[in-house]
Write a sequence for this structure.
């Protein structure tokens, strides 16, 4: 795993680029470029984007709090489960991504996750997410096409 590098960001979004180890089925781990992304327009969520820059990415969106909780212990009970690695790769956070077709096991550098969450928390402190939601836009999206 490579340590994080800051990516393009502005005052309303954060991107942290890193390399993760991906294991699918009983295969050997494969390094893969990845990005952790956060934006104030979706203040409760983070996006983990997997894939090479020249290929289409696979994006997983889940709660920022799930990622933060996973730094300290087992977090999640659905399609995404996060927990710290304590044995083989103690400097990594493990993310399990589950679908009907199978499970992918991702090892992400703890430094990348910590840096990402520190920057996201500075942009939108936990507990203040509601101040960043455009309720008019949400209501418009929910009622679009209804007359």
């Amino acid at each position: 795993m490579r340590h994080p590098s800051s990516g393009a960001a502005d005052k309303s979004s954060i991107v942290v680029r890193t390399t993760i180890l991906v294991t699918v089925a009983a295969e050997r781990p494969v390094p893969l470029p990845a990005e952790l992304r956060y934006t104030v327009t979706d203040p409760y969520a983070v996006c983990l984007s997997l894939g090479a820059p020249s290929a289409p990415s696979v994006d997983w969106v889940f709660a920022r709090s799930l990622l933060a909780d996973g730094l300290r212990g087992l977090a999640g009970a659905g399609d995404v489960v996060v927990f710290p690695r304590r044995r083989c790769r103690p400097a990594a956070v493990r993310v399990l991504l589950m679908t009907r077709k199978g499970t992918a096991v991702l090892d992400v550098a703890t430094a990348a996750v910590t840096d990402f969450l520190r920057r996201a928390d500075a942009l939108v402190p936990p507990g203040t997410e509601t101040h960043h939601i455009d309720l008019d836009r949400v209501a418009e999206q929910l009622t679009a096409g209804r007359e």
Q: What stands out?
A: The first strand starts at residue 2 and ends at 6.
